[in-house]
């Protein structure tokens, strides 16, 4: 497995997807980055792929691979794509490189995943890309509205079901194209990287090997390092600009001070041009913490550009500390009519926004059931106000939101530590 130590702190650049960060300030857990929110980051870090080489297929997939209840026999159409362009064929026992989709649509993956396209021609490989259930067009129950409606329908969204999906499709492909002796290498990034590693563990008779890029396999329970994710975020920003670091560090108390004023939350909403009114100061704190982490995780130049904006002296010299912070937001997010601090409440004016919302709902469910990563703001994360991860609060919030509690120990129980 590559990048195993870097995996532990998550300060690595994913080949395909972002990773969830549960922010500790919220009473109701925040569920992290929506993968398609960061499409520009992936475009900058991965090679563009010529999608015209891919043929799209749909597989009649079982809803539930593990029970024999009548409902388990329901099926849905799962989307996948194959690139035959450089394949040497079954007679040559040419390999199969299979990208295991993560918390994004297949369209997104085909647009940004360059590893298969870079290495496929040299290996004369068949290139396969499989969409994860409940993302993109691979929706059970006929539509996203039904599939993402509540815990009863979302309950079939988990990593074990996803791995079984991939197994069924890869065996189907091997049979359809008579590739009995073609070795399969499964590939994924971030959550998809975890899936690739887990697939090799659970289905070694199907996959000869796995490439798990930026896969935080050990970031569960007490296996995480003492100084974790936000310690590295702090370190990178401080090394980039100590002035920027100090401005951000001081901003949290200033947000609290403004929020305590009469109409303070309205003032903050106006200052940060939020798309919806703030309910509490933690809304804007979580939003800012997320974008600082985005900048560090995905592109060092983003950190420089953000800090340059925060550090810049305005022509009128009238802007205050929070104006500087907002300048950093604009540098990262570009100039928008408003900035959504809650993905679930953002307007959906087009199909792209609608898909982003669906992806966020699906990933929120996964983050609030089995992909439970204990990441908070510890005292060593000096750029942030201390707010250690509180598992009891997280469980309570998830149960309140979905009606079912998380199973924070299940991943390590089911997959173990390798």
UniProtKB/TrEMBL annotation:
One of its GO terms (molecular function) is serine-type exopeptidase activity. Residues 1-18 form the signal peptide. It comes from the Eukaryota. InterPro entries: AB_hydrolase_fold, Peptidase_S28, Ser_carbopepase_S28_SKS. The keyword Glycoprotein applies. The keyword Protease applies. One of its GO terms (biological process) is proteolysis. SUPFAM superfamilies: alpha/beta-Hydrolases. Keywords: Glycoprotein, Hydrolase, Protease, Signal. Belongs to the peptidase S28 family. PANTHER family: PROLYLCARBOXYPEPTIDASE-LIKE PROTEIN-RELATED, PROTEASE S28 PRO-X CARBOXYPEPTIDASE-RELATED. This is Serine carboxypeptidase S28 family protein.
């Amino acid at each position: 497995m590559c990048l195993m130590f870097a995996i532990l702190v998550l300060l690595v650049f994913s080949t395909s997807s972002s990773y969830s960060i549960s922010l500790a300030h919220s009473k109701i857990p925040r569920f992290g980055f929506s993968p398609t929110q960061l499409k520009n980051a992936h475009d900058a870090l991965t090679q563009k792929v010529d999608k015209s080489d891919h043929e799209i297929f749909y597989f009649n997939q079982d809803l539930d691979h593990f029970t024999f209840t009548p409902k388990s026999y329901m099926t849905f159409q799962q989307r996948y794509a194959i690139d035959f362009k450089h394949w040497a064929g079954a007679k040559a026992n040419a390999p199969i490189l299979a990208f295991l989709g993560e918390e994004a649509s297949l369209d997104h993956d085909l647009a940004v995943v360059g590893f298969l396209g870079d290495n496929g021609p040299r290996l004369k490989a068949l290139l396969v890309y499989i969409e994860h259930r409940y993302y993109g067009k691979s929706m059970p129950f006929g539509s996203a509205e039904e599939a993402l409606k509540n815990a009863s329908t979302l309950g079939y969204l988990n990593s074990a079901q996803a791995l079984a999906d991939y197994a069924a499709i890869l065996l189907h492909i091997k049979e359809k194209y008579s590739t009995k002796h073609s070795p399969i290498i499964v590939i994924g990034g971030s959550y998809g990287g975890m899936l690739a590693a887990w697939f090799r563990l659970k289905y070694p008779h199907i996959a000869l090997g796995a490439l798990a890029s930026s896969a935080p396999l050990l970031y569960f329970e007490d296996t995480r390092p003492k100084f974790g994710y936000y310690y590295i975020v702090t370190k990178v920003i401080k090394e980039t600009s100590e002035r920027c670091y100090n401005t951000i560090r001081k901003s949290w108390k200033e947000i609290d001070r403004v929020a305590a004023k009469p109409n303070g939350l309205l003032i903050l909403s106006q200052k940060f041009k939020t798309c919806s009114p703030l309910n509490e100061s933690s809304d804007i704190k979580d939003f800012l913490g997320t974008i600082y982490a985005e900048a560090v995780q995905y592109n060092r130049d983003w950190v420089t550009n953000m800090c340059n904006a925060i550090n810049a002296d305005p022509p009128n010299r009238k802007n205050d500390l929070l104006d500087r912070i907002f300048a950093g937001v604009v540098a990262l997010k570009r100039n928008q009519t408003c900035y959504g601090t809650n993905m679930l409440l953002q307007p959906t004016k087009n199909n792209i926004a609608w898909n982003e919302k669906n992806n966020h709902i699906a990933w929120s469910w996964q983050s609030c059931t089995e992909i439970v990563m204990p990441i908070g703001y510890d005292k060593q994360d000096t750029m942030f106000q201390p707010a250690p991860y509180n598992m009891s609060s997280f469980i309570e919030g998830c149960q309140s939101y979905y009606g079912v509690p998380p199973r924070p120990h299940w991943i390590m129980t089911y997959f173990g530590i390798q």
